[in-house]
Amino acid sequence: MSGTADREALPEKVFDTPVTRQAKIRIYDRVFFFLGTLGAVWLAIVLAVLTPRLSWVSVLALVLMWGVLAYLALPRLNRMMAAIYVPDYFIGRTRTSDGLLGDPLNLAVRGTGEQLATVMHQAGWILADPVTLQSSIAIVRSTLTRRSYPTAPVSPLLLFDRSQDAAYQQEVEGNPAQRHHVRFWRTPEGWPLPGGAHVDWLAGGTYDRRVGLSLFTLQITHKIDADIDVERDFIIETVTRAEPAVTVDVLRDFTTSYHSRNGGGDSVHTDGDLPILDVTAVVPDPAAPDLRPGPPSGVPLQVWLPALINLVVVPFVAWSTLRTRWQIDADHTLAATTLVGSLVIAVMSFTMYARSALARRVLLAVAAFVGLTHLGGLVYDSTVLQSGHALGAMVAILVLVALSSPKATDWTTRGS
């Protein structure tokens, strides 16, 4: 048989397939994802090394460095590493938005959403607010002032490639830093647990004991109690005491008992059992609040924030450049170029907000060029915080990081 005939006899999957449009988009996004990560790390190093010491300027620089590291650089590095070593299949663990392994799943439920909402309501559990700008500001304010916030938002964790369908909590003595809370995910239709058991909901219950810094990202977050089995048993006790119709079955040794860490770096340990709450005999109560999705719907932060930044910062930069350059450039070339570029960025920001994939890609390229240019200028400027390069680099990197995120990609891809 000839070589051509042998090749034609092979299964189709062994041949090199052409690069699809979606694959090209993924490659493009990964390039700018890497550039955004590199730029954030570079900016953090510059802020740490090139600022004056023992002054308010150095303190401000350190605060900015922490912000860049915690909310731009380290989450990106974690996502890159997690894509390599964190399994992308069910192992009884959730994942953080940065791709790290999150809290273990330590509870399951059989029953409808209405029945689950009823028993949680009867047991005194309160639905958490979705994570929005307003709720995030509210929880920071309540934590600093130690004022009660019983519906404080719960950070999203991912299971089945989506955030929790609902999160319930019980605040402890009016202290927003301490609370019992549990997240619920509806399982896919017909999906079996390892071993063959079927449940309608999976849940992860933990106890927030204080506010602190994440070990892996340095972000401000709640720190959980290590013994998650105690919280699991607390949830079961409150539900079964409030509703006698609820029964409990236990899958022994569902996972191996272990000591590990969650996405915030907190120690967790469990015996590996998975209790299953059966609420199928519960009569739904119309007065019980309906389950709500964890994250809010609408335009994601990663889209509207860079669009807003472009529409606010770019006109200011254009005006400043025109005011100074128009007088010193006889041919006005630079001033005219700046004006045209500003108009292009403004138009691209509007159309990207309206789900244009092309506009997002154009803005990514512009942000990468501007950011790397300003970072290069920072290396030669010893007064970092007094330099326009610092502001330009931070704004460009923020836009680059936001628009190269999966949420921004999904938003514009669905509209194309």
Which keywords apply here?
416 residues; single chain; alpha+beta
Please provide a written account of the structure.
The structure is a single chain. With about 425 residues, the chain is of the alpha+beta class. It contains 11 helices and 14 strands. The protein has helices at about 5-10, 20-50, 55-85, 115-120, 135-145, 230-240, 300-330, 335-355, 355-380, 390-405, 405-415; strands at about 95, 100-105, 105-110, 125, 160, 160-165, 165-170, 175-185, 200-215, 220-225, 245-250, 260, 265-270, 275-280. Strands 3, 4, 7, 8, 9, 10, 11 and 14 form an 8-stranded mixed sheet that branches. Strands 1-2 form a two-stranded antiparallel sheet. It has a two-stranded antiparallel sheet with strand order 5-6. A hairpin with a 2-residue loop joins strand 5 and strand 6 (about 160-165). Helix 8 (about 335-355) packs across helix 9 and helix 9 (about 355-380) packs antiparallel against helix 10 (about 390-405). The chain starts with a helix and ends with a helix. The relative contact order is 0.13. The model is unreliable at about 1-5 and about 15-20 (pLDDT under 50).
